[in-house]
Amino acid sequence: PALFMENARKSSIVSRANSIGSTSASSVPNTDDEDSDYHQEPYKESYKDRRRRAHTQAEQKRRDAIKKGYDDLQAIVPTCEQQDFSIGSQKLSKAIVLQKTIDYIQFLHKEKKKQEEEVSTLRKDVMALKIMKVNYEQIVKAHQDNPNEGKDQVSDEVKFNVFQGIMDSLFQSFNASISVTSFQELSACVFSWIEEHCKPQTLRDIVIGVLHQVKSQLF
């Protein structure tokens, strides 16, 4: 009986141990199921990831803008479109594009200055022509008002003397005002002389002076 009771006690202890183990096992979560559920949840982007993505997009946008700017320069600047045998068919570098752009802008500045000088010269030509036009209109008007006055009374010699006197007077001021260092300076001085010494009133005074001189010689 004592042995029977001892075996019964041991069997009871083992049964309780198995019961406790079963209860503990049932309380442990199923890790395989949890892993499966975790992978099924949607990925949530962190704030750091959003900042990194926004920075990458902004950087790409900046690079695209710079590339477009260089492409526009190559399309606008004529020298960038010409074949450069020193680099073959390779694409122009940014440094070459910038240098060619600077050279082209400097060329345009020189052309602009040259055109401004040409416009200034043309304005002087127009002013001189206007003065000559006014003078010829006055001469024509005077002849129309008195078409027969002095007819057949003045010889060709007297006419030549009057013309020579006018030209001599004009040449004196012309010779004193004109510089012949260069053709450009000569042209500028001629128009300046016309504006200063060929005004209607000045020419009128010269002609009157010459006529008085010729008159005194004749009479």
TrEMBL record:
Subcellular locations according to the entry: Cytoplasm; Nucleus
The organism's place on the tree of life at top rank: Eukaryota
Basic and acidic residues composition bias: residue spans: 37-48, 56-65
SMART domains the UniProt entry points to: HLH (SM00353)
UniProt KW keywords: Activator, Coiled coil, Cytoplasm, DNA-binding, Nucleus, Phosphoprotein, Repressor, Transcription, Transcription regulation
Coiled coil: 105-132
Any single Gene Ontology cellular-component annotation: cytoplasm
GO biological process: positive regulation of transcription by RNA polymerase II
Protein name: Max-like protein X
Gene behind the chain: Mlx
Pfam families linked: HLH
Subunit structure: Efficient DNA binding requires dimerization with another bHLH protein. Binds DNA as a heterodimer with MAD1, MAD4, MNT, WBSCR14 and MLXIP. Can also bind DNA as a homodimer.
Residues of the BHLH domain: 50-108
Annotated Polar residues bias: 10-30
GO molecular function: DNA-binding transcription factor activity, RNA polymerase II-specific; protein dimerization activity; RNA polymerase II cis-regulatory region sequence-specific DNA binding; RNA polymerase II-specific DNA-binding transcription factor binding
Principal localisation: cytoplasm
Region (Disordered): 1-65
InterPro entries cross-referenced by the UniProt entry: bHLH_dom, HLH_DNA-bd_sf, Max-like/E-box_TFs
Role summary: Transcription regulator. Forms a sequence-specific DNA-binding protein complex with MAD1, MAD4, MNT, WBSCR14 and MLXIP which recognizes the core sequence 5'-CACGTG-3'. The TCFL4-MAD1, TCFL4-MAD4, TCFL4-WBSCR14 complexes are transcriptional repressors. Plays a role in transcriptional activation of glycolytic target genes. Involved in glucose-responsive gene regulation.
